Fold this protein.
Amino acid sequence: MGDLIDRLRAGLPDEAILADPDVTASYANDMASFCPAGAPAVVVLPRTVEQVRHVMRTATALRVPVVPQGARTGLSGAANASDGCIVLSLTKMDRILEIDPVDRVAVVEPGVVNAALSRAVAERGLYYPPDPSSWEQCTIGGNIGTGSGGLCCVKYGVTAEYVLGLEVVLADGRLLRTGRRTAKGVAGYDLTRLLVGSEGSLGIVVRAVLALKPAPPAQLALVAEFGSAEAACAAVCDIMAGGHVPSLLELMDGTTVRAVNAMTSMGLPESTEALLLAAFDTPDPAADLAAVGELCTAAGATQVVPAEDAAESEMLLQARRMALPALERVSTATMIDDVCVPRGRLAAMLDGVAAIARKHDLTIGVCAHAGDGNTHPVVCFDAADPEESGRARESFDEIMALGLELGGTITGEHGVGVLKKEWLARELGPVGVEMQRGIKAVFDPLGILNPGKVF
Amino acid sequence: MGDLIDRLRAGLPDEAILADPDVTASYANDMASFCPAGAPAVVVLPRTVEQVRHVMRTATALRVPVVPQGARTGLSGAANASDGCIVLSLTKMDRILEIDPVDRVAVVEPGVVNAALSRAVAERGLYYPPDPSSWEQCTIGGNIGTGSGGLCCVKYGVTAEYVLGLEVVLADGRLLRTGRRTAKGVAGYDLTRLLVGSEGSLGIVVRAVLALKPAPPAQLALVAEFGSAEAACAAVCDIMAGGHVPSLLELMDGTTVRAVNAMTSMGLPESTEALLLAAFDTPDPAADLAAVGELCTAAGATQVVPAEDAAESEMLLQARRMALPALERVSTATMIDDVCVPRGRLAAMLDGVAAIARKHDLTIGVCAHAGDGNTHPVVCFDAADPEESGRARESFDEIMALGLELGGTITGEHGVGVLKKEWLARELGPVGVEMQRGIKAVFDPLGILNPGKVF
């Protein structure tokens, strides 16, 4: 280990190397539950591409595993340290290098915080859509590693759709440029997209060219209350089949509504079994909301409340923002799942999750990016009670099994990490796993990049 | 060869095997110029996934190269036969298996013609955007193999953005399922996107889940005439920087305008050095066109003519549709290039192409998907004159070099195939090529899938 740190010092300034075990221990985890983490040998905080290359050359020379990290807001353990690893934190590489309104691109380093980029481009009349809940903390590099989504995806898609090109330091320190700055391009295999969502297992992203959109008008929202989750899901299907393009279409189940009521003074009706939030950022959002409100009423909504303006819309969306904090107060711990199903199967998914909650005698609240069929069942449990913790883990797995059974995926936007790696093989099948492992070996023949993650 | 055909017969009906050399020769080429093609040993036309698997198992057993083909409308030689190969035509696998308006997906076989799918989904109020010029002939499988674009891309993006999941027969006949049917998903590496644009070099696509959009309103167009290409390109930049989202933004240079005039009775002003066509499919397209028309005038347009209705818009777009046929009449042959540059460099690109035309004393007309920076310089030459053909090939290469120099790519939407494979290494660099070859070896260790293409 002395050798490791000496070698790192040869290409990194002192302040970029943290070796005090008390300090390095604080870099061991991201925000996932139930994911083991080891003790890093060292944490490095490079500021330049050349420094990252030096770290990777050193890691290759000494066969030391490297765990790349952004803001560690991930929910799958993909950024958890392994014993004796180099934690490679990209948070100091946080420059926005360029914003170009003609090409509609931004060029950024990986440590740029999502919100910082969003605000910087907004000042130029532009829009970077991906908006994970952690957007005030999470970094673009982490978003790229995970393939993050957010509330906007129902209209604007996920992170992958905004990454045009990358600069990547490979396991052996070589620099790979992928993709392009242009709007289109089909020269060779799409390595850019291969790297997005690869959770640091193929290379270290050190620069990204991101596509931007023109800033849309402020969105206007409505909230609709339903007496059953089934009716709310039917409304979601009717809205999407009706050709509407909401900028947000979120669902909270009755469990979540009651948790929010218990925490706040929002006074949502206790009889509500599902709350639907829809928003439009179109030229005439009031007209779109009126049409969607009618579909909600026809599907059985007990009440439909459209906002009058942007400020009122923000108030309506507060209930959604409170969902996770409210569920976190139900017990001492939560596990948040991320199963995405075809939206036509959303009702079956919610029904199945409710059955799993009853079977295991647990509180499981569901918030969903309903327009995408992406559910976040939140399993609440007492971490001090091993038996209950066991039931929580079982129900978490049963939720993934249900998602696969309904034609869905085990992860819509949070990634595989440590948390779901045993499940990945079930989703991909043996041929898929073999191809993916083959690709991993091409990029990382020594297996030093984030080992024990994804596969 | 007797052995090859006997083995193929064991898993294919007689009518699915064409072995008459006069017949197989007609499958030797796609529509690219200057691309060598060999003589196929046999052409197979399977109708089922199982038959495709049989073909690939046979090819692997006998180490026979396989060249997959759709409608052979490609422009890079990617579908050209190699000597002694099996041509695997997917054109008989042409069923639309499902159109689902709630999930907004279509499930199709690879031989479905683009226009057939577009019309079928339009009947359900849906929209499959990718619209290559050959859309009445080309197949979805070919579009996926090439990563095709079209006129709509400036607003709706390219084929890659509409492919959610694939079923792929691997080189050894195993079946690989990639991706998903859901709106989102990040389980493992994105093999779907890796396969899109891989030109049949990684596997045979036998089924695709495609994302659909709600059908937009009919688009309304305007045409603007400019005294210089530079002014037209400035207008393009102003339109995009101004936050407009046209559904089409096309440019024709003066050479192209004069060729169209010579062929048709459109009577475009001969002094026109660039024609810009813009269209909007927004709720209020007339307002958007008015704003864009003002930007064109400010940038120096000599005349701006907005259409009154959809029928008049179609008439305006006729000039663009005539561009290629008109340039094809300038001499006995044409080569169509496909260089995409950052849109801020479009003027430099057009200026450079004009200089290349002067230098080589050739007619080179440029049509461009200007909103994407994707230019199609069309080199006109006399194929019977070897010296002139040489100059044509040289100018074609100089256009690619210019594109790379301007920060662009050698191919925006036509692919690499045989035509540009020597250029691919220049764009990707040695590290990129090494990674791509590594991936190829994972999928196709024997090198039987479309050998001699891409790399």
User: Anything to note?
Assistant: The first strand of chain B starts at residue 17 and ends at 18. Chain B has three domains: 2-89, 96-214, 330-446. DSSP finds 14 helices and 19 strands in chain B. Residues 286 and 410 of chain B are 36 Å apart (CA to CA).
